[in-house]
Amino acid sequence: MEPLVSTGWLDQERGARELAILDCTYVDKATGRNARAEYDAGHIPGAVFLDLTEVADTDSPLPTMLPSPAKFASRLAALGVGDGMRVVLYDDSPWRTAARAWMMFRSFGMPDVAILDGGLAKWRAEGRPLDDEPPTVRHPHLTPRDRNVGVRDLAAMRDIVERGTAQVVDARSAARFTGAEADPRPGVAPGHMPGAANLPYTRLFAADGTYKRGEELAAVFAEVGIDWQRPLVATCGSGVTASTIAFAAHLLGHDVAVYDGSWTEWGAQAHTPKVTGA
């Protein structure tokens, strides 16, 4: 299965026994939207709802941090995801939150995972079917696997920034990156990590909401000076939109790590270096 699948492909494949479809929509309460209620009102037939706020480390003061391997495995098994299955992820979020779920699956050693290109918006625009009934879910076994792929913590990021051992790319808006716009989280400073490049995640997408591909996508990274011969770590506000950078890099054949705590963690620390301006 390709890492990015089309609406036509999914429409043909949905219903296959060893295929799980997950609605990974996550939106902030400030938007006035309720992702679960929207799922209940209409979702891709056969899809189950993956609550990214619950399949997380809910003991952490930081939002949407990766859960333990045991929690991830138990929650996903309850949603019908088992060993050896193919998984397709989609969302209807301005933050492209299916990429965050993709990063989670990859970090727990589950590579056969794809994102629906264009998400629910494209599916709906094409007049494809929606369902308002929950699917019947089997409860297969899913083996817990250690988090060993593509995740960086605060200690690792301190070392990277101090020694310059990897490039850092920030997926936030230019205004948030430069500090011209205050961070919305209380106690979080404005600005960015020293040496970081700014690549707003919205630049990864075409006008129709699908991912850019090939040379067009490669040019987005080239324009901010990314050198694919050096390691790269993506960061953002809370580890969500950074995952779109990791996924886009994957489409180009490159592995990119994600700083899980991102600016919510870094910007709240008293002794982490921070800079403002471009």
UniProtKB/TrEMBL annotation:
GO terms for molecular function: thiosulfate-cyanide sulfurtransferase activity. Gene3D superfamilies: Rhodanese-like domain. Pfam families: Rhodanese. InterPro entries: Rhodanese-like_dom (IPR001763), Rhodanese-like_dom_sf (IPR036873), Thiosulphate_STrfase_CS (IPR001307), TST/MPST-like (IPR045078). SMART domains: RHOD. Keywords: Pyruvate, Repeat, Transferase. The keyword Transferase applies. Residues 15-132, 162-275 form the Rhodanese domain. This is Sulfurtransferase. It comes from Sphingomonas jinjuensis.
